[in-house]
Amino acid sequence: MPKGEGKVIAQNKKAYHDYFIEETYEAGIVLQGTEIKSIRAGKVNLKDSYARIHNGEVFLIGMHISPYEQGNRYNHDPLRDRKLLLHKREILKLYGDTREAGYSLVPLKLYLKNGFCKVLLGLAKGKKNYDKREALKQKEAKREIERAFRERQKM
């Protein structure tokens, strides 16, 4: 299965609006306790989360996984930092890339693939306001063209 495919649980659509995505990486995620049950139930929020490299390991910071309802004392801290599983050479490459000005690691998708929870990480460069406006104009123009094409097909 290609990376980024599987049963999508959560997407970070705002990341595509706020950043230019240069490359994507598929990473496993270390979960504890009842977190996977909450993820399967769709109780995840990727908004305002990011990844950081610390001591040769990649951590996902700010991802909110709601506590599982039937989890009682086995529940977890919803906003704890979670370790991501990547190959050493990928981590070293990402470390070098994020040292460049303006690059950051942003989670784009959280999905289940072959029974495992995966995160699609994007190496992202921030957009300026005028870039965002230009992207919205292009999106609107594309929508208008498709609408006109559909109308013409009906005739």
From TrEMBL:
<keyword id="KW-0694">RNA-binding</keyword>
<dbReference type="InterPro" id="IPR020081">
    <property type="entry name" value="SsrA-bd_prot_CS"/>
</dbReference>
<dbReference type="InterPro" id="IPR023620">
    <property type="entry name" value="SmpB"/>
</dbReference>
<dbReference type="InterPro" id="IPR000037">
    <property type="entry name" value="SsrA-bd_prot"/>
</dbReference>
<comment type="function">
    <text>Required for rescue of stalled ribosomes mediated by trans-translation. Binds to transfer-messenger RNA (tmRNA), required for stable association of tmRNA with ribosomes. tmRNA and SmpB together mimic tRNA shape, replacing the anticodon stem-loop with SmpB. tmRNA is encoded by the ssrA gene; the 2 termini fold to resemble tRNA(Ala) and it encodes a 'tag peptide', a short internal open reading frame. During trans-translation Ala-aminoacylated tmRNA acts like a tRNA, entering the A-site of stalled ribosomes, displacing the stalled mRNA.</text>
</comment>
<dbReference type="Pfam" id="PF01668">
    <property type="entry name" value="SmpB"/>
</dbReference>
<dbReference type="GO" id="GO:0070929">
    <property type="term" value="P:trans-translation"/>
</dbReference>
<protein>
    <recommendedName>
        <fullName>SsrA-binding protein</fullName>
    </recommendedName>
</protein>
<dbReference type="GO" id="GO:0005829">
    <property type="term" value="C:cytosol"/>
</dbReference>
<keyword id="KW-0963">Cytoplasm</keyword>
<dbReference type="GO" id="GO:0070930">
    <property type="term" value="P:trans-translation-dependent protein tagging"/>
</dbReference>
<comment type="similarity">
    <text>Belongs to the SmpB family.</text>
</comment>
<dbReference type="GO" id="GO:0003723">
    <property type="term" value="F:RNA binding"/>
</dbReference>
